[in-house]
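Researcher: Good morning. I'm working through a list of sequences from a screen, and I'd like to move beyond sequence-only analysis. For each chain I'm collecting a predicted structure so we can compare shapes side by side. This is the next one on the list. No need for commentary yet; just the structure.
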Amino acid sequence: MVAVDKSENVLSVNNLHTYFYNRWGTVKAVDGVSFTVKAGETLGIVGESGCGKTMTASSLLRLHPQPASRIIEGEIMLDGDDIMQYPESQMRDVRGRKISMILQDPQTSLNPVYTIGNQLVEALTHRTDETAKERGLRKLAEEALRDVKVAAPNRRLLDFPHQMSGGMKQRVVGAVAMACSPKVIIADEPTTALDVTIQLQYLRLLKDIQARTGMSIIFITHDFGIVARMCDRVAVMYAGRIVENGPVREIFNNPAHPYTAALIGSVPRLEERVDRLFQIEGQPPQLYDLPVGCRFKARCTFAKPVCEEAYPTYYQVDENHNAACWRHDPLWESAPPY
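Model: Good morning. Structure tokens for this chain:
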């Protein structure tokens, strides 16, 4: 177990904008996202498909598709340094060593023509500490597989990806991401391709590694069940922006944004029998044609004309709990309805 100062911000993202440019116009995939991650903390980023979760993660490593997209503005403070100012040559040293990413699909994350050992050793070449020099990269690759509970790691180093099951490949992807002991791991829906029992094993494995190493995790998902099990805080994204941010228990007990409440309400409960599952009516707006005002207004049961006039500011609902919704404005009750 590693003792960490949980009051220290390892990662601070301020006003991040990542835009795509295509024939339809400017696609605002990430449109002013801000959040912090403390040492040893797990932050969940939740939202529907297409809301900007994965693009936010890619932007943090500056791996957004180029030249199709550009980071227009923003600040990414990692361990006290603004990595937005780093040239690409310096970013290569940051990726893997300070911040790393577990991708969603292990089938496409691993190179099919290289052995697992070759791919792990390639990741470990970024380690420059004395341990890497003394013990050798091959030995460290074996230990990396052992850390993620891969049986017979010395033999598995010789295997190709197609010789492993989906769950085992996802563990290898995790081993590659954590090989250089980064301070921040971004896990982009790493359990999507796994069955339920293997999902649980994988989540427990991540928590065990976090407790042992003190690393911070950004967990991207659309599953509030995983958020409840894994995360300390959660940021809810909608149409390129974070609409609510707060401690997990507070978000579950007191969702302050209608979109958050709708997402939680979409999760079936075992103790309740219903004829029809709850669904959020309508579709998210197109990111190249965003409406003026609140972006959730067309799907919101509480919407008033004020919601069409301007995007709401962030209101403090409780300690460390904020939401971008006009309902928390002192003048909301007196605002005229439709």
